[in-house]
Amino acid sequence: MQLQREKSLLLMVDFQAGLLPVIEGGQEAVTEAAWLGEMACLLEVPVWLTEQNPEKLGGTAPSLLAALNDYLLWQKQHFSVMAEAEFESALKASGRTQIVLCGTEAHICVLQTGLGLLAAGYELYWLSEASASRRPQEATMARERACASGAVTVTADMVAYEWLHRCDTAQFKEAHQRFLKPRSSRPVRFF
Fold it and tell me: Among 16-20, 54-58, 69-73, 167-171, whose mean pLDDT is lowest?
């Protein structure tokens, strides 16, 4: 169960501007997601975003969009994006089988998406520090339920280093200077 960037896709669920102000740790979750999103873009790992009913909840947080130079945006009405036929078909066609998942609210849309991914046979990696809910205990319970169903809890650093795989490449050197070195002294908060 080691992540490989050629098999990976980073899926960010509903980091929406209208929802984030009521999410406990929402800004920290966006910061972590943006950091890994930038790393994914550098390493050519696809980044997909979802928005739940954006007419009412607003679009994706501008700070997250600003961090990404390449992404695909999906709008949805179902809590699980896997219930959206077009998304499910596109994911299958992508050939990506390892899904790194994060977002808000962890116990609703992120969890239901994760359970849908697991049911469809994908390897699921729950990005803990970038998944949040209005109440932290619900984010914790969502992670525990996803893991009991077959997901694996990961941190952004775990994912980044597994994607990088080795330290003697130009990509590692660039990632180290841009992302890893400045981050090394920051504390990690888990929701």
Answer: 167-171
Contacts of 95 (CB under 8 A, 6+ apart): none
Q: Is 62 left (phi over 0), alpha (psi -120 to 50) or beta?
A: alpha
Please tell me the pTM assigned to this model.
0.93
- From 69, 134, 125, select the one nearest 106 (Cα to Cα): 134
Half-sphere exposure of 62 (CA within 13 A, CB side): 0
Kindly write down the DSSP assignment for every residue of 120-186, as one continuous string: TT-EEEEEEEEEE-SSHHHHHHHHHHHHHTT-EEE-HHHHHHHHH--SSSHHHHHHIIIIIHHHTTS
